[in-house]
Write a structure and sequence with these properties.
It contains 4 helices and 7 strands. It is of the alpha+beta class. The chain folds into 2 domains: 172 residues, no CATH class; 97 residues, no CATH class. Helix 1 packs across helix 4. The radius of gyration is 24 Å and the shape is elongated. The termini are far apart.
Length: 290
């Protein structure tokens, strides 16, 4: 009698081979995701250090803070008139800062935006182009659309560095001096923020301008890379904003909305909700400039 080969099933060896192959495929996917996450974290950390180093280099070279430099027109413009960095004054259309040893943001000076122009003019960092005939205001139009309510003389392009961590994310400068309460979880100083512009900013930037850019897990990985891995302590801080649906995004085990940062005490018991995958956090990196 002939054997019926049509009904023959898989042998244990064949099943084992299939299981091994599936395991290798799953492992490869997970490893690939880990590599992507690691690249995002490393790029964010590198960019922060790059911009802090650029500002420190400027300070050492010119004995002034970028953006705040009182005589920037004399150094960088000279006979070029307003064609290079703006007029010989510290208005929004001017090249100069007010020289008070602080990088400020107010209706008159917009020094947080002149920082990038001064770094460009000094050939220290050219990540942001110059707009000498436009007002120095926070602006990013690509990939984000032009926010409503802007003056007609704002730049047609960005005047703050873009980040690759997510579409539309930018690096900008912030200080709790501009917020009611005057601290970020009890801390002062000048910070580099990693967030996403949404609309025209108000004083302190941490309101209409901010939107979340990373998941809590990615925020924790960035924080752990250069600091303590905690959202309200150390030199890397996290915050979140109100989003559609009338709810705070879950960035940490305690809600850490931008408008409550001055009243929230730093605590090691507040940790990142690392299992959350949605974009729930923005970050602040402390500089050594103030």
């Amino acid at each position: 009698m002939k054997n019926n080969l049509k009904n023959k099933g898989f042998t244990l060896v064949e099943l084992a081979i299939v299981i091994v192959i599936i395991g290798l495929l799953v492992g490869g996917v997970m490893h690939g995701q880990a590599l992507i996450e690691s690249a995002k974290v490393n790029r964010a950390v590198t960019d922060f250090k790059k911009y802090e180093t650029a500002m420190l280099t400027f300070k050492a070279k010119y004995n002034a803070l970028p953006g705040d430099m009182l005589n920037a027109y004399t150094f960088f413009d000279g006979s070029g008139g307003s064609s290079v960095c703006g007029g010989n004054n510290n208005s929004r259309l001017g090249c100069n800062g007010n020289g008070d040893s602080l990088i400020g943001w107010n209706a008159d000076h917009q020094e947080v935006q002149k920082v990038w122009a001064h770094l460009n003019l000094s050939n220290i960092n050219k990540d942001v182009s110059l707009y000498p005939t436009k007002e120095y205001r926070f602006m990013v139009t690509s990939p984000n659309p032009n926010p409503t309510g802007w003056a007609a003389d704002t730049p047609n392009d960005r005047n703050t560095p873009l980040s690759t961590i997510t579409e539309g994310a930018v690096f900008s400068l912030a200080s709790p001096r501009l917020l009611s309460g005057g601290t970020y979880y009890g801390q002062t100083g000048l910070w580099i923020s990693l967030s996403k512009p949404e609309s025209k900013p108000i004083a302190g930037y941490l309101d209409d301008i901010l939107n979340n850019v990373v998941s809590a897990g990615t925020a924790m990985n960035i924080d752990s890379k250069i600091d303590d891995g905690l959202p309200t302590t150390g030199t890397v801080l996290a915050l979140t904003r109100w989003v559609a649906g009338s709810a705070w995004e879950v960035c940490a085990t305690t809600y850490i909305p931008y408008n409550q940062m001055p009243s929230i005490a730093p605590s090691a018991s507040i940790t990142y909700t690392a299992n959350q995958q949605n974009l729930a956090c923005s970050l602040l990196f402390k500089t050594s400039l103030e």
